[in-house]
Amino acid sequence: MKELPDNERPRERLISYGASSLSDSQLLAILLRNGYHNKNVFDLALEILKTYPLAKIQECSYYDLVSIKGVGKVKAIEILAAIELGKRIFLREKEALVKLQSAKDIWKDVRYFITDVKQEYFYCYYFNHKQELLERKLLFMGTVNRSIVHPREVFREAYRLSASSIVCIHNHPSNCVMPSKEDILLTDHLVKTGYIQGIPIQDHIIVGEDSYYSFYEHHNILNL
Fold it and tell me: Going from the N-terminus, what domains does the chain have, and what CATH number goes with each?
C-alpha cells in the first residue's frame, strides 16, 4: 500500500474524497490493513469478495472468514463487527417507526434478511397500536417447530417493547411457501398464547425469495 501514490491509497482517498469514493475491495482493504506473504492486502480483499460477494458476505460466520488464508481471528472479528454495524445503521435509517400494513409490505421488508440463507429463520415484528414497527427480532434459527419456537421468548420481547401486536415470520429455504402441518400447529399454538397474553398474533407469514404465504390472508388461523 505504501508504494501507491497518495491519491490511490484507500485511507488517504477516504479522507480526501469520502468513503463513497472507494470501491468495495478498497473498503475491505482498510479493514484488513495488510496481506500475507506474497499476497498484498488488495489481492486478499479481492479474493474474499470473489468467495463471498457483498450479497453473501453479510451471511458469513467467523469460521467462514478464518477459513480464508490470510484472514486470522482479529481480521475476521473486525469484518464481522463492521458488517453488523452496517446492518444496524441500515435498520435505523429504515425504521423511524415505519408502517407495514400488509403481509406483502412485511415480505418485502424481511427479504433483505433471508435472501439465500440455507436454514430457517424465525423473526417477530413487534408493532404499536398504530401499526408502527417497533422492532424486528430474530428469535430462532434452524428447523422451525413448536419444540424450538418458545412462546415465552416471543412474548418476552413484546412486553419489553410494550408492543400491541406481533407478526411472526419465517422462511422456507426451499422457496415453497405453503405451510406444513407443523407450521399450522405452531401458528395455532402462538395465536392461542397471544389471546391469553392479551397481545394478538396478527399474522404468521412464510416467506421465500419470490412469494409469501400469509395465514391471515388465507383465513387459516384461529382468533385472527
Answer: 6-94 (1.10.150), 97-214 (3.40.140.10)
